[in-house]
Every structure is written in structure tokens, then in C-alpha cells.
Model the fold of this input.
Amino acid sequence: MAFKAFANDTDILNIQGDVLTVNNDPTRIVVSGTLEVTRDKAGLKAALALQQAINSVVEVLQNEASLPEHIAEEPRKWPRGELPLSTRTRRSGFFHERPESRRNQSFLL
Done:
């Protein structure tokens, strides 16, 4: 199944297990993690998966007739009011939110 950018808020593409994730949402795509592309068949497979996801994002954005300059920032709504694991750290057996400035592993496309 091919990744379809901005199609819904449930699809997550995992590349090389889950070292790199591409999270789908109707208003934004979030790419998280670190991908090491090796010069072998596994590296090619990972690079092609990433290329397909990015190509899907670019295609949707280029074909959007009424693409705004910026989207209106709104608070993210997570299921059951919880933050995803990528925005939490584990300390002393409990999860704590990381400050916005420390979320350097994720970026918005």
C-alpha cells in the first residue's frame, strides 16, 4: 500500500522498522527519526520508501489550487488527550512532556 500524503490522520509509514516514521495528517506531515541509507539493497529499499512518501507530499502540495501561505496554527489533538511517544521522555518510570525547544528529532514538512 502506497503512502498517500494528507489523506487522513491514521496512516503512519515506518521505514527500516521504525527508525524513521512519516505520520499522516490532513494539515501536516511529520517525519521523525534518523534514517541511515546504506549502499546496499536494504539502503535502496529505504531510500525508495522515503522518496515515495516525499513525492506524495510534493504532488499533493503542487496540485492544491488554493494552497495558503501558512496554515493557521492550532493545538494538536491527540487521541484520548495523550501526546505521542515521540514527544515524551521516560524518567523514573513516568512519562514527562519534553519542552518544545527539545523536540529536535521531529520536523514538519
